[in-house]
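Before going further, learn to read the protein records used in this course. A complete example follows; check for yourself that the lines match position by position.
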Amino acid sequence: MKISSEIVLETVVEDERWTAAIENVKEVAEQVKFATFGYLQTHQNLNFLAEDKPLKVNVCLSDDATVHQLNKEFRNMDKPTNVLSFANLDFADFDAENEPFDEIELGDIIVAYETMVREADEQGVSLRAHFCHLLTHGFLHLSGFDHIKTDEAAQMEQMETEILASIGIDNPYEEF
């Protein structure tokens, strides 16, 4: 399967602590994008990767307050989480909706700074490594993968582990 000619990553830094915490954070996001979609191209049969249109993903590097509000509004959850993904593939008419457009919008990923920092500290991993993990996780959600069922969770964990290894990040699921 041929991958789309271009995957556009639109990264917005809403909270400036991101740029101080992770050197070249936008470039790191690009590296994770290439690793994730390259992996998917060779390991999965996903129709949208073969489209002859650019794919677009929006990434927002934000904070706990923003993610908390989004969780309340869209997930009925009154707390922040580390990452939120809003996948357009989840819509039944995804293909028909994208047909008239010149690019395919896969969706949005929002990462909460404070939660990411706390989790990285608890796990004893670098902020860069944890950010790469959360972003990989988000890209997989936008590509149609989930972890609600045990077998789905195992598949996502395996994919995340292999993708992260390809960019020099240790298995995030090993006991810490």
User: Anything to note?
Assistant: The mean pLDDT is 90.
